[in-house]
Amino acid sequence: MAAPAQPTFFYDLGDPGSYVVAERIMAELPMVPEWEPVLGTDLGWTIPDPDADALAARVAAHGLQSLRMPRRWPPDSELAMRAATFAKGGGRAVAFSLAAFRQTFAAGRDLSDEGTVLIAAASCEMHPAAVLKAVTMRSVTDRLRAAAERATAAGARALPAIQIGDELHAGPDALDDALAALPVVRSGR
Q: What is the dihedral of CA 104, 109, 115, 119, to 10 degrees?
């Protein structure tokens, strides 16, 4: 049996559901996924208002840092998503994205604040001047839009979404659904 294709993890840094999946995906998915930042509004999707108690329970159930929601809701993630797109081009999508998620949902910081983005960038050794220049570049904006087009072509209408081959799993349960759909790998024991 052929191994499944490399998964793609589509996410928006302002989405708490994407945060929970991001914190779990590398440890729980048996294949390393490609991390693809997608601005939810480019899909025609808006970040839903979270049920704070249910979200906090989910965060706690997975042993994540205590939830601390940003004051501004819904978050404006465009600046951070441009930075994530720039980070992906330099091989730092995972490191930058996890740092940005944690700044937002564990520290309660505003993603539209340049300082929040620069703290996340500094944690993965991205130079602040390079980040500030990159987030204004048309090529970065074009790559972010192209990611939304790829997500749309895969069938994503909500985030987070995980594509494995032709199958797409979307929404807060995307990772659990993707794991359940994977073929069971049998050992020789």
A: -50
Q: Whole domain around residue 89: which residue ranges?
A: 21-181
Place of tokens 């929040």: 116
- CATH code of the domain containing 80: 3.40.30.10
- Domain count across the chain: 1
Residue 8 lies in a domain: no
- pTM for the full predicted model: 0.93
CA distances from 177 to 8, 123, 182 (A): 14, 31, 9
Contacts 24+ apart (CB under 8 A), 27-30: 28/175, 28/179, 29/162, 29/175, 29/178, 29/179, 30/182, 30/185
Mean pLDDT by groups of 10 residues along the chain of 189 residues: 79 97 95 96 92 92 92 93 98 98 96 97 97 98 98 97 96 95 55
In this structure, are residues 18 and 157 in contact, taking their beta carbons and an 8 Å threshold?
Answer: no
d(Cα 177, Cα 189) in Å, to the nearest integer?
A: 27
Let me know if residue 40 belongs to a domain. Answer: yes
Task: Give residue 184's pLDDT.
Answer: 55
Structure token pair of residue 75: 């978050």
| pLDDT for the residue numbered 2 | 60
What pLDDT does 186 receive?
35
Assigned domain for 159 exists: yes
